[in-house]
Design goal:
Number of helices: 15
CATH topology of the largest domain: Rossmann fold
Radius of gyration: 21 Å
CATH architecture of the largest domain: 3-Layer(aba) Sandwich
Largest sheet: 6 strands, parallel
Low-confidence stretches: none
Structural class: alpha/beta
Mean pLDDT: 94
Distance between the termini: 19 Å
Order of helices and strands: EHEHEHEHHEHEHEHEHEHEHEHEHHH
CATH class of the largest domain: Alpha Beta
Length: 359
């Protein structure tokens, strides 16, 4: 039986695509091999990057020419760097007559707005020859159809590892503080400063509110300085959380997950992790979240980026423990039905079957 080749980032790294590939790894019933692409740990110099790119291309071509594969699954994101890299792999696979599924995880809105003329033509020349495309948001599907893609576009979800069920059991939370969690890469567009200001506003009337900021990134030191400069109390910073058990301990200790992102998400896995841990979520309709999120049942979702709007939602949850607990129970049940790795991998394998055995 021919095999399926899936491109993945280096699995020791962090990020949504890494989490996705890692959670899938031992779940497949079909024969799926991983092929690592992209930046490697310890890679810093330009010559290392060039050498790695050349080596990856030659390794990929050897895999294709082996005759072992009849389908290539390319995990990519809609940003310039990823499209240049992964477009090469898609082109090589189609040139060998191998079917290709291109799965867009992230989606950069600013690049979408720049896609016209030659740039759009090049994108279509490479990616519109794929056998099928997959996206995480209905908006992305609409855009690809509007650009003229006539093949099948699957709308999927990302996932959470079922290991989380053993980590996030219901336990009583401290009544002394109300814990707000912001867990993400620390970038301005992830909403880190909106989150800080929202908590600062709530603390004026509820001084027991505590904010945990977990993650690394460009804004780690600036955000710490911002908190110190403005003397905002009860804010704890935690560096990148690489230990899975530690990540879920943070979710389990949280009363609400606050994620006011405007980054250009595909479907942020941290939102799904919060749901499976039974934590209410306050977020924005960025990416695929808006396609399933039930405002008022899972938490609150708003187009606004105003910290006072987020503060009002936090205050509502502080004042209504019954609502908070009801949301938590609903979130856990919903996530168990839709986002656990075994459920997602079965859907993905049905896509593989459809592509390999067209009616």
């Amino acid at each position: 039986m021919n095999r399926i080749l899936m491109t993945t980032p280096e699995l020791t790294q962090t990020g949504g695509v890494v989490s996705y590939c890692r959670a899938l790894q031992n779940q497949f019933q079909l024969p799926v091999d991983y092929f690592e692409v992209g930046k490697r740990q310890g890679e810093s110099a330009l010559w290392q990057t060039l050498l790695r790119v050349i080596r990856d291309i030659f390794r990929f071509q050897r895999h294709l020419k082996s005759g072992a594969y009849d389908l290539v699954h390319i995990n990519t994101s809609f940003n310039t760097k990823a499209l240049l890299r992964d477009g090469c792999f898609a082109w090589f696979a189609r040139r060998q007559g191998i079917k290709v599924l291109v799965y867009f995880h992230g989606w950069q809105r600013s690049l979408e707005q720049q896609m016209n003329g030659i740039r759009l033509g090049m994108f279509k020349r490479i990616f519109f020859h794929a056998t099928a495309l997959a996206v995480l948001c209905s908006d992305f599907k609409t855009t690809l159809s509007r650009w003229g893609y006539s093949g099948q576009i699957y709308q999927e979800t990302t996932l959470v590892d079922d290991y989380i069920l053993d980590q996030c059991n219901s336990v009583p939370k401290s009544s002394e503080t109300f814990d707000v969690l912001f867990l993400a890469r620390l970038e301005k567009t992830k909403g880190i400063y909106e989150a800080i200001e929202a908590v600062r506003h709530v603390q004026q009337t509820h001084p027991h509110v505590h904010l945990t900021i977990a993650g690394g990134g460009r804004e780690y030191d600036p955000a710490r300085h911002y908190v110190e400069k403005n003397r905002i109390p009860q804010v704890t910073f935690t560096h990148v959380v690489t230990d899975v058990a530690e990540k879920y301990r943070l979710f389990q200790a949280a009363d609400v997950y606050l994620f006011p992102t405007y980054y250009g998400e595909g479907m942020p896995v941290t939102v799904l992790e919060a749901l499976i841990c039974g934590v209410p979520v306050i977020t924005r309709p960025d990416g695929g979240v808006k396609d399933f999120f039930e405002d008022g049942k899972m938490g609150f979702i708003t187009e606004s980026r105003d910290p006072e709007v987020f503060a009002a939602y936090i205050t509502r949850l502080i004042n209504d423990e019954t609502l908070r607990r009801r949301m938590g129970r609903y979130n856990r049940q919903y996530a168990q039905r839709h986002f656990l790795a075994p459920t997602v991998v079965r859907r993905l394998e049905r896509i593989y079957h459809d592509l390999r055995n067209p009616s």
